[in-house]
## 1
Amino acid sequence: MLITLRPDADVVAVEAALKGLGLWTTRLRDADGAARGLRVEPHSAPAALATLRALPGVADVWRAPSPHPRVDAQAGAAVPLPGGAPLLVAGPCSVESPEQAHAAAALAAAAGATALRGGAFKPRTSPYAFDGHGRAALGWLRAAADAHDLAVVTEVLGEQHVDAVAAVADVLQVGSRNMQNFALLRAVGAAGKPVLLKRGMAATVEEWLLAGEHLLTAGAGTVVFCERGVRGFDPETRNLLDLGAVALLKHAYRQPVLVDPSHAAGRRDLVVPLAAAALAAGADGVIIEVHPDPGAARSDGPQALDAAALVALTATLEAHR
Ligand code: PEP
Ligand code: MN
C-alpha cells in the first residue's frame, strides 16, 4: 500500500499517526530528497482506507488489487458445519470397516463432534501402504455419520472421484499433497460444495490463499483453510504446526480456519495441547483423528486419540465455549 502526502504535510506527524494505528512505513523520496509518500510494510496491521485518507497530511492511499478477491470476499464467513465454536470434527484416519466407522462415530459424537472425518481414498507415501476401501468406505462413513447425526468431511484424492465423494460428503477435503493440484481444485470446486483445504506441507500462506481462490473461481462453496503443519527440520514431531499462519488467516484475513493437530504432532500425547494452542490462536475448531483401537489402525495409529484421550480434548473444547 502506498500513501501519498500533501505538499505541506508534516511527514514525521503522519508517520507517528500511522505507527499509532500499527502501520509501519518507509519514506518514498523524490529526486530532490523530499518525502512525497510512504510505503506501508506488509507486516502492518490492517486499516480502513477511509481512516488513512482522513489523516492530516495524507493526499491519497493506493492499495494494490488483491490476487485473491474471492477469498477476501468470504472474510467473516463461518465454517459451514453444524454446531457452535469451537467446532470438533473427529474420526479415523482411514475408514476401515462399517464396524470401525460406527465405533469411531460413537466416540466422536460422545466427545462433542458435529462432523465425522475419515478417508475412503487415502494418499499414501508408499505404494504398498493401505490406501483405503474407496467407494465402499464412502457408504460406511455416511451410514455411521447418519446414525450419530454427524456431518461428513472426507478427502477427494483424484478428479475421477469428485462425484462419488460429493454425493456423500457435506464438506470435500483437499489433502496437503494435493493443495496445488490445480486440475483437482477445478474439479472439486465445480461440485459447488464447501471445501476443507489442507495447507500444502511446504506452501506459503499466499500459495494457500491462491489455491482457495482456484476453488472459489471454479464454483466451490465456502473454503475452510486447514493448517496441519508444515515440513520442519526436527523429526521429533511429524510436522511443525504453524500457529502464526492460523492467527494471520483468522485475524488479518478473517477466514474460516480449522486446525489439524493430529497430522501436525504425529503422536497422541501432543494432540490436546496443540488443539488448545490452535484455539488460542483463533482457530474456529479442530479436526482430530480418533480410533476405537488405535493399536489396530491401518494408518496413523500413533496419533489417533482413544476414548480416554478424548476426555481431555472435550475438556479443552469446553474451556473455550
Ligand atoms: C488426512 O486428513 O486424512 C490427511 C491425509 O491429511 P493431510 O492431507 O493433511 O496429510
Ligand atoms: Mn491420517
## 2
Amino acid sequence: MANHFAHRLPKETPLARPSESYVCQSCGAVYAKWAGRCDACGQWNTIELEQSAAPPNTVTTKGGKGTAISLDPLEGDATTEYRFPTGNGEFDRAVGGGLVPGAALLIGGDPGVGKSTLLLQIAAGLAQSGTKTAYISGEEATAQIRMRAKRLGLAKAPVGLGTGTSLRDILATLKETKPQAVIIDSIQTLWSDTLPAAPGTVTQVRACAQELVRYAKSNNCVVILVGHVTKDGQLAGPRVVEHLVDAVLYFEAEAGRAFRILRAVKNRFGGAHEIGVFEMTGGGLREVSNPSALFLSENDNQVSGSVVFGGIEGTRPLLCEIQALVSQSSLGAPRRAVVGWDNARLSMLLAVLDTRCGLDFGRHDVFLNVAGGLKISEPAADLAAATALLSARLDVALPPKLVVFGEVGLSGAVRPVPQISTRLAEASKLGFDMTLSPPSADGFGNLHAAPAEVIVDAVSFVKKQGGVP
Ligand code: TYD
Ligand code: MG
C-alpha cells in the first residue's frame, strides 16, 4: 500500500529487525517500519520500536490433541449473584452494585486525580467487610502508603500491603496468599521478564494485563488494575487493556475543582455510563450522594441566559445549570465558545434557531457553559441549551424553579427523551415547580408542565415570561 506520509518519514526509514517491530502505543497495531500516523487508530506519533516476543505457536495437529470442552444447556446452575460490598456507595454504584468475584476492572485517570487514594479506601472497605484484600503498588514505597492510610484514618484496616513491579513475583504472592480481591497500582509499572520490551510499552502492558485477568478468572479473585492516562488523554495501550477486562471506569476531575466523577464506560456486570461522585477533601475522597445540589448554583436571583437542565447520568438523575451569554460581536466571524458541551451541537442549535424561528445569531458572540465543570453528552440537553440561548438573546430571565429537557431535531421538532419520570421526580424532590419539556412529559405531581412540541414553542415560552410580543 502506498504510504501517504512518506514525506514525513526520516530520510532512512529504519526497518525493524526480525526480533523487533514497530508497535502503536495506543492500539497495539504492529508495523514493519516506522510511520508518523497509525493507520489502525488514526493517532499521530504513537508508533515506537519494540522488541517483539516470539509469535504464538499456531495450533497444529503436531502439538497433540486438544481436550473436548463440554457443551451444556443454557438452563442450569449459574454463578451466585454474590458481590463483594466495598462499603462505598458511590463506588458500588459506578461498578454496578459491588464487585463480582473473578471480575477484572481497569480504573483509568490522570496522574494526581486521586486513583491511589480512592483504591486504598476501597481496599480498606473491602477488607473491613471481610473480603481478604491485597494492595500492590509499583509506584510508591510502603512508608508512603502507610502515611496515606494514616491520613485517611484507615491504618487499622486488615489490608495486605505489597510493593513490587515484577509480574512473576506478584503472581507468586497471589498464589501463596490467595486474596479475594487485589489492587494493582499501576498496570504501567509492571513488567514480565518473559518479554524483552521495556515496562510501560504496549507489549508489556498487554501481556501483564492478560496474565492478571487470567489469574482473576481462574482463581475467582477480583483484580482491579489502575491505569494512567497520558497527558493527551490517552491511556497508554488503552484499547488493548480495555478489551481484556470486564469493566473500564474513568476517574475524572475538572481542573481546579474538588469533585471527582468515576464513570463506567464499559461494564459486563452493570450499566455503562453509571457514575459515582466524590469530593476530594483533606481526609480522602468523600461520597457525594446528592450530586444535583453540587451542580446547581445557590443563587436565586435569576439573570437571563441561565436554565436548569434535568439530566440523567447512567440511571441517576442529575440537575445542572446551563448558562449562555450572547453579545453583539465586533468581529467578522463571531465567537462560539462552549464549556462542558459539544461545539458541533451548539452550531446545530444556532442553525435551527435561525432557520426555524428566524432568530439570527450571525452578528453575536455566543458563549455556553455548563456550571460546576460537568460535561454533558446527552441529546436531551438540546432544549435546555436552546432555551438558555433564547433567554440570553432576548434578555429574558426565566422562572427560578424551571427545569428543561428534550432533544431538538434539525426540523425543529422537540423529541421525547428516555427516563422522563426519573427526571421529573428529581426536579420535584428539589423543589422545582415547572418544566419545559416534550409533550409526553406532562402530569407529574405538583410540577406544572409547559409542553414544547417544536422549538418555536420554546421561543413563545421565553417571550411570554418576559412579556415580549
Ligand atoms: P493520588 O491518589 O496519589 O493520585 P493518583 O494515584 O491518581 O496519581 O492523589 C493525589 C492527590 O490527592 C494529591 O494532589 C493530594 C490529594 N489528596 C488530598 O487532597 N487528600 C487526601 O486525603 C489525599 C490522600 C490526597
Ligand atoms: Mg497513584
